[in-house]
Amino acid sequence: MRTARLIVTTCVLGMVIACSGSSVNGELLVSAAASLTDAFGEVESAFEEENRDVDVVLNLGSSTALREQILEGAPADVFASANTSNMDQVVEAGEAAGEPEIFVTNRLQIAVPAGNPGGVSGLEDFAREELLIGLCGENVPCGDFGRQALENAGVTPSLDTNEPDVRALLTKIENDELDAGIVYVTDVLSSPPGEVEGIDIPTEVNVVAEYPIAVLASAPNPDAAAAWIEFVLSEGGQAILTSYGFTSP
Question: Which of 104, 160, 103 lies closest to 129 in space, CA to CA?
Fold first, then answer.
């Protein structure tokens, strides 16, 4: 999978040369949802290859925590959220420059440790008290979406832990500390081979996460920020993102 992704990056470099039409330079601060960690890491490499005077610094975490950082005045050029509600609050506070754009979507999936020791087959198993069950915390996008999917399925979970972001939840599952959790499809794909298994959630109860992105009004480097977003929305940028399991909007 990693080799395939490297091939994707190599192949798309030629397609993204024109993405940043003007010359940009300096440090670019990108605050992005934790579920974008691996994909944006590769986007960063490709973007810097085509913009050699730019140093991209990724600030990755819960979209809710990143929103609060922005509203409290922390410096950032770009905000990429895993849901629209956090972005809406940034827009309402006057902290976004222009209209945010949806750049990818994502879906939920049940994650279990390799071998599925808890015998989990679907969302109904999240009500089993003998299992160790985890979700992302409330008001965190993956937590809100996970609770919505459980509600859609009519399941009240027997919850043992609320994690601060999706990567923290995934790590506990990888380490066999939990029997199951609800993460994104992209997170299951990102896990090292043989550590996590994914169980699909039926379409009729699943939740589609829309990811908006925007240049921030107080961006220290607005030109580089605009070039980054253009890159992400380009054919080459989308090819990288979809190779990690995201879907183009």
Answer: 160
| Residue type present at position 75 | P
The domains located in the chain, with CATH, are: 2-105+210-243 (3.40.190.10), 106-200 (3.40.190.10)
- For 50-81, letters b (16+ CB in 10 Å) and e give bbeebebebbbbbbbbbbebbeeeebbbbbbb
Q: Report pTM.
A: 0.88
| Of 54, 67, 34, 37, residue with least CA distance to 231 | 54
Give tens-digit pLDDT for 143-163. Answer: 999 999 999 999 999 999 999
**Which segments of 124-247 are extended strands (E)?**
133-136, 161-163, 180-184, 196-200, 208-216
What single-letter amino acid sits at 160? D
